[in-house]
Amino acid sequence: MVSAQDKTAGPFTQFANRLQWENEGEIYWIDALGPDALRFRSSKSLRITDEDWNLLPQSFVQLEISISEN
Questions:
Q1: Which of 28, 30, 36, 40 could connect to 21 by a Cys-Cys bridge, CB 3.0–4.6 Å?
Q2: CB 43 within 8 A of CB 50
Q3: How confident is the model at residue 27 (pLDDT cuts 50, 70, 90)?
Q4: What share of the chain is helix, strand, coil (3-state, %, to 5)?
Q5: What is the pTM of this model?
Q6: How many separate domains does the chain show?
Q7: Distances from the Cα of 30 to the Cαs of 2, 57, 63, in angstroms?
Q8: Geometric angle at alpha carbon 5, from 48 and 14, rounded to 5°
Q9: What is the pLDDT of residue 26?
Q10: Averaged over 12-40, what is the pLDDT?
Q11: 7, 13, 1, 47: which is closest to 27 by C-alpha?
Q12: Do the domain assignments include residue 61?
């Protein structure tokens, strides 16, 4: 599941390996998936299962996530 919360700015919450956004009863996750790809997931139940389903295993990606209020 999601690790401890790192930072919140505007509608986004930053975690160690993902950005999360909640809006009007929906939740969205944005994850890095390899060096040049993003994975977007969403749910209207405010719960997302952390399953890879048909995705191939990916190598470790060093992330640098930065969010700020403007």
A1: 28
A2: no
A3: very high
A4: 0, 35, 65
A5: 0.72
A6: 1
A7: 12, 17, 12
A8: 75
A9: 92
A10: 87
A11: 47
A12: no
**Amino acid sitting at position 32:** A
32-60 confidence digits (pLDDT tens):
887 788 889 999 988 888 787 778 877 77
Characterize 24-54 residue by residue with b for buried, 16 or more Cβ atoms within 10 angstroms of its Cβ, and e for exposed.
Answer: eeebbbbbbeeeeeeeeeeeeeeeeeeeeee
Specify whether the CB–CB gap between 13 and 5 falls below 8 A: yes
Distance between start and end Cα atoms, the chain: 29
**Tokens encoding 35:** 């060096």
Question: Looking at the domain assignment, is residue 70 inside a domain?
Answer: no
Supply the range of the domain harboring residue 37: 1-56
- Rounded CA separation 29/19 (Å): 6
